[in-house]
Amino acid sequence: MNDSLKLAEYDFERRFDEKGALEWMQEHWSKAFMFCGLYAVFVFGGQHFMRERSKLNLRRPLVLWSLSLAIFSIIGALRTGYYMVHVITNSGFRQSVCDSSFYSAPITKFWAYAFVLSKAPELGDTVFIILRKQRLIFLHWYHHITVLLYSWYSYKDQVAGGGWFMTMNYIVHSLMYTYYAAKAAGMRIPRVCAMIITATQIMQMVMGLTVLGLVYRWMHEVHCPSHMDNITWGSLMYLSYLVLFALFFYNTYLRGSSGGKGSKAE
User: Fold this and answer.
1) 177/117 Cα distance (integer angstroms)
2) Which active-site residues does the annotation give?
3) I need a labelling partner for 179 at 20 to 30 A (CA). Which of 13, 157, 191, 227 fits?
4) How far apart are CA 154 and CA 226, in angstroms?
């Protein structure tokens, strides 16, 4: 994998201290539970607080919020995707699954750390839903909590499969937050776009389970660093997402139920 480290990188990517980032995450990853606890208090307390109050508009802040996350996700998808394509092309699919240099390669080390950290500010999505008094479904807040916990938990061990998980998530978020920004700006988006985004989310869950299955299969055969706790929790997480997103897709688009937000994304 040494040739993968020669991919063209930006100066800020090359200078990023991945060792310091790993040390911080290994010491502080459990803070994710604190963030999730505060988030849960806000979810239920915020809904109670807004129950007798008028909803806020917040259209312009929501446009800026969604647009900033869209730009971040697009850049992250391009940088990590470039690396993953290079690994697959030069070393094969198995190496792309088992690769752990994703966390330390000059082109991706910044984006791997930025990815896991971004799961904390992404909790802000829910602020807009509650203050605008929109329907808050279980999938939304459950997904935010579990992604934050699993991302920080996995980064500290730098387990195999991370390149696939992060790259897929960056790609899906690129589509999702672009869609949200356009909707918040008042643009008329065809319903099929929301269906496509939700379908890509379902495919992401299928691929996530596939990658974890391959990591389990190759964990003792080749250099494919992971452990059973991570594979178990990851599999339960992705399986629950697969079921919930499939149900969301069915209820929103196939049954023609009203009140669907369009796409509930990661």
Assistant:
1) 17
2) 143
3) 13
4) 9
